[in-house]
Amino acid sequence: MKDIFYTVIGLIFLLWLGVWLWNSGIIWIILIGLIIFAVVHFRKQHKTNKPSAIKSKSKEIIPVKVHKTQSIESHVSSESDSNLIRIQNHTFLINPDIFELLYFSDGPLQNIDPNAEEPSAISFNLPIDISDNFEELGYYPSYQQCSASQRYNYLCWLCTDLSSVPDIGFAFILLDCLERHIVNNEQIDKCVDLILKLQSILKNKSFSYYSTTSIAYAAFQFKRTDLISKINLENCSPQLQVLFKNQLSTNDLINFAKLVHFTNNRYIKRYPDLFKKALSADLSKKYGEPYFKYKFKDISKLSKSPLMFSNMSLNEPMLLNGKIFALPDPFSSVDFCADIYKELQKAHNLVKDFLKIKRAADPTFSKEEKNKYQSKSKKRINPDTGYPMSTDKQIKSAKDNIDMTKDSIDYHRRQLNDPEYLKFLPKKTSAQKIRDKVYYDFLLKKAKAMYLYKCGKWDDAEKEWLESLFSGLDAANRLRIMYQKENRFKDAVKVMEIAWNSPLVQLMEGDYPELTTAFQKQLKTAKNKADKKTDIDRSKLKDKDFDLLQQNSDELSNKYLNNNN
Question: What is the pLDDT of residue 62?
Answer without folding.
Answer: 38
